Structure formats: C-alpha cells, structure tokens
Amino acid sequence: MPADSRHPAIFLMGPTASGKTALACSLSERFPVELVSVDSALVYRGLDIGAAKPDAATLARYPHALIDIRDPAQPYSAADFRTDALTAIKDITARGKVPLLVGGTGLYFRALQQGLSHLPEADAAIRARLSAQAELIGWPALHERLREADAAAAARIGPNDAQRIQRALEVIELTGRPLSEQQRGGNGERFPWRVLKLALLPLERASLHARIAERFDAMLRDGFLDEMRGLRARGDLYPDLPSMRAVGYRQAWEHLDGATDAAQFRDRGIFATRQLAKRQITWLRGELDARAFDPDRPGLEARAVEALELFLGVAG
Q1: Which residues, at least 6 apart from 78, have a Cβ–Cβ distance to it below 8 Å?
Q2: Among 57, 87, 145, 166, which residue carries the largest CB count within 10 Å?
Q3: In percent, how much of the chain has pLDDT > 90?
C-alpha cells in the first residue's frame, strides 16, 4: 500500500479541565507544531477568566490561532469556525509546520473533519413559537420533547442550552427528520489532512470534578464576577447571545441579576461545568479512531510524545 502523502494534523481533544492546554504547550516545545484553538468560548474577546483562556504570557510564548477573534456581541457558528480553521491550518502547513488543534468543542472538530450538513435556514415564526413555549414551560421541558424526537441530539445538548434546543426542534419541524441523522451525513467536504487524534479521557470522574471545582474557585478569586460586570456594563450584550450562554457566564449573569446568592452561583457554575465535561466525555467515547490517554495516570506527556514521534516519523 502506498504511503499516505497528505500533510499531517493533530487533534488534541478532551473535556474541560483535563489539561489539554498544558500538554499542547509542552508538545510545541518538542515538535514543529503550531497551535489552533478549538473552543467556542475562547473565540470571544473579553471572555478571559470565566473561559479559562490561557493568560497573555502563555499566549505570547505559545500562540494559538482562533483565540480573541470575535466580539462577544457577534455570534460565531460551527461554519465560521470551519472556514477560519481551514485557513489557519493551510497557513501553518504552508510554513512547513504541523497544525495541532487543541480544545473540547466536539461540534467544531466534527464540522472540520466531516463538513457541515445542508440544514434549512432559520424560520422566525417557528423560533418565536418555541421561545414563547419556553417562557411558559421552560427549556428543560422542551429538551425532554427533543429527547423523545431525537435522543442522540438531546444527549449532546444540555437541558438549558436554549439556542441548540431551539435549533434542533426547528430543524425537526422543518424537515421531519432528526437533527442528529442529518448532521451525520455531512456534505462530502472531507478534511484533506491525515489526522492523529489524541483524547484525554479521565477514567475516574472524581479527580476531574475536583479540578473543575478548584478551577472555578480560582476564577472567582481572580475576578470572574468583575469581568462579568464589565461585560454587562457595555450595554450591548444580553443573556441569549452565544457568548453569554457559555458555561459559567450564563450562571454569572443570573447571579448578577439577583437570581442566586453567592453560594448558589458557585454551585450552579460548578454543576454546569461538570455537565459540560460529561457531554464532552460522551462525545469523545464515540471517537473510536482516537488514542485515549488518562490524564491522571503518570507519564502522560511521554506517551503523547511517543504517539507524535510515530505519527510524524521524527524524534521529538
């Protein structure tokens, strides 16, 4: 069989707080890679503390493409990501380097590798009706309706993720087919690089949950609520924007509206982050061609280095 002549690319995937960024930075010290962020919150300028964005010193030493590329008042879609990521990857390859894509947004990885389905345009009347229903019965009730119609989509979407619940129900109503079925089809625009997938999959949830809680508390100490106050003070942001629905920011907005006290806000923020990690782990377990590593097992970096050396045919 002839050797695969396609340029290489590396996907480093994992749930939130699993150590992806630290590992990616370490690998960039050893290999001719350039980093590309695959994170739906890090694209937004000003979402720093609550999104666990790498600090300025880290980004100066280890630049990441697709961080701070969009104002939080402007929505950013999987289609936007695919366009921007392909441009970044082509530029990295043209420089003779290997793109290392690091993040936990499964929808973005899937859109990049499989292409995007040709889904119907938004229907204002259907969206208005669904929003009105949500006002009456709540988004979790609509999520339950989605689960009955499309269990696979509901498993990926949180019960309070208004935008995605609305879109999934809208697509089902417009086409008569489950959203998950249509997304599996893609559009034939396959990813033209050969890919090594590395997945950080904790075997024990307890350690991941502990890191999530520790990181959320560190965010609070670092001024997350002050960051949120500054975003609200702009006057052009509102709770239904994709940026403001990011995990942590949604709960912070509710807290500053007076819906929760400090302890409730902390609990809800940690719980929402744990639920995000659960959905990310479920998605990663479906990536059957990925090499899984337990980030809590000693020797993670050495195992990742070995995988890259074999894939790239180089010594780190």
Answers
A1: 107, 108, 111, 116
A2: 166
A3: 75
